[in-house]
Specification:
201 residues, alpha+beta
Length: 201
C-alpha cells in the first residue's frame, strides 16, 4: 500500500485486474471494478504511445487497520469491502512500474445514449465536467458504454476554444457490442488515438 497526497493506494498490474474480472464475471456489474477496467484501457494506451509501463491504483479510505493486513486482502476482497473503498472525487490512480504516482483520475460513465450520436453524448458530458475548478493534477476519463464511433475531425475539435480544468482527458469505449475490443482517445492536452485494444487473457 502506497500513500499519495494523503490517500492510501494499492497498485495492480493490468493483467491482474483483468484476470479477476474474467474469473468473476459478476464484477462487470460492480461500479468500482468497471472504473479499474477503464483505467486498464487508459494504462494500455499510455504504455503503447508513451512507452511508460503503468499500473492502476485502487484508492482506499483512511483506516486504522494494519497496512500489512490490507496488503494481504485480495482485489476481489477489496472490491466487496465497502468500508475500505474511497468515496471521494478520485476513482483510480495511475502510476508507473516503479509505483511512482503519475495521475489521479476521475471516471465518468456515459450509459446507453439511444438515438444520440457518440459525439453528442460526449459534448453533453463535457458541458458539465468543464465547469469544475481547475486541478491539473487530475485526469478525466470518460467511459462510453455504447459502441465508440467518432468522426475524428469532430472529436479533435470538441474542446476548441474551451478552458479545460484537467491535466488530461481520455475517452474510452467498446468498438463493437459483445466484443472485447476497445479504443481509447486522448483529447487533451493533445490528441492521440490508440490502436485497437483487444482485451484477452
Amino acid at each position: 500500500m502506497d500513500q499519495i497526497g494523503g490517500m492510501n493506494v494499492i497498485y495492480y498490474k493490468r493483467q491482474d485486474i483483468l484476470i479477476v474480472g474474467f474469473q468473476n464475471r459478476d464484477l462487470f456489474d460492480n461500479k468500482k471494478y468497471m472504473e479499474l477496467f477503464a483505467g486498464v484501457i487508459v494504462s494500455q494506451m499510455i504504455n503503447d504511445l508513451d512507452g511508460i509501463d503503468t499500473l492502476v491504483g485502487f484508492p482506499l479510505k483512511k483506516t486504522n487497520r494494519n497496512p500489512d493486513q490490507i496488503n494481504s486482502i485480495s482485489l476481489i476482497g477489496l472490491l466487496k469491502d465497502k468500508s475500505l473503498i474511497a468515496d471521494d472525487d478520485i476513482d483510480i490512480c495511475i502510476g508507473d512500474s516503479s509505483r511512482t504516482y503519475l495521475s489521479k483520475c476521475q471516471i465518468t460513465r456515459v450509459p446507453a445514449f439511444g438515438n444520440r450520436s457518440a459525439i453528442t453524448a460526449l459534448k453533453e458530458i463535457l458541458s458539465k465536467k468543464l465547469l469544475v475548478s481547475t486541478d491539473t493534477s487530475i485526469c478525466l476519463i470518460i467511459n462510453i458504454e455504447n459502441n465508440i464511433v467518432f468522426d475524428i475531425n469532430e472529436l479533435k475539435s470538441v474542446l476548441k476554444d474551451k478552458k479545460v480544468p484537467y491535466g488530461a482527458i481520455f475517452v474510452v469505449g467498446k468498438i463493437k457490442e459483445n466484443e472485447w475490443r476497445f479504443k481509447c482517445y486522448r483529447i487533451f492536452p493533445d490528441f492521440a488515438e490508440s490502436d485497437e485494444i483487444d482485451i484477452h487473457l
